[in-house]
Specification:
single chain; alpha+beta; T-fold; 2 domains; 7 helices
Length: 343
Amino acid sequence: MKISDINPLRRPLILLAFTLVVSISCEREKPYSRETFVMGTQAWVTIYGLDEEAAEAAAGEALRELHRIEGFMSNWKKESEISLLNRESDGAPHKLSSELFHVISRAVYFSDITAGAFDISARPLVQLWGFEGGTAKLPTDSEIHAALQKVGYNKILLDIEAKSIIIPPGMELDLAGIAKGYGVDRAASILKKHGVERGMVNLGGNIYAIGSPPGRKGWRVGIRDPRGGRNTTGSLLLTDAAVSTSGNYENYIELDGKIYGHIIDPRIGRPVSHTLSVTVVAANALQADALSTGFFVLGPENSQNALELLRGVKALFALPNGGKVIYEEIGDFSGSLTIDDSH
């Protein structure tokens, strides 16, 4: 979680990892673009092919949808549905809206896929390390053990027919690692409903690309240098797909001379150090969002096992190698990925 930024959905597990590069191939066809600040980050909608009035209507509805989703999924809003659920966590069944039930169900599914590496119940660990509004500190083994007792996606009980949930007393759910992806999917769906065939939704680096810009094979997305800064180390060509990146390069703490990144392995309660960043391409943004966090924790080898259960997902890992960075791909990028690993 980024100490310097406050995210209404929590300090983001998924950071802004892309610099969007839109090449306009025809001077006569300019894109319509509109932005807002939501879920603790900037959101952009870019549209080709509609007149200004139609594009404005489409973009406006898509961005309003992001604010609506923030309203019931944000842990920073005291009266949001997720906040009310957390305050009432007493081991009894609680009826959920069909939308929140869907997102939590998908989160549990991706927890299964990643063997618990992605877990929306990890909030006590995030707070313990000081990544969520508290003071950064190095917790003791006993403090970590105590926090782990309140963590575990397998303790979440869902009733599909009743659309209800049971979570143990003291457990708190946090959707920061999946809500942005869900929001991007909803916004993209709205654009398509308005007839958009060439467009993009970018919510703090969680991206869905519809079609491609005029005269181009896809949307060119720059991949951030995992060591920090605003430089890029490569690019990705994206068409009718989603992409998300998890990284520690902007969001970390330093304790006793050692750097600790914000992404915590919820199974052991400690920050992950074996990965610098993971970029995941998937069919939808919710999937890419959740998997980028899970894969970050798992590392390439164990993520490969998870990929066998998924279709069309691919991932690029940036791994530390002394003072350098090495990259490892899993899945088939089919020439859509370019990496400059010379530095």
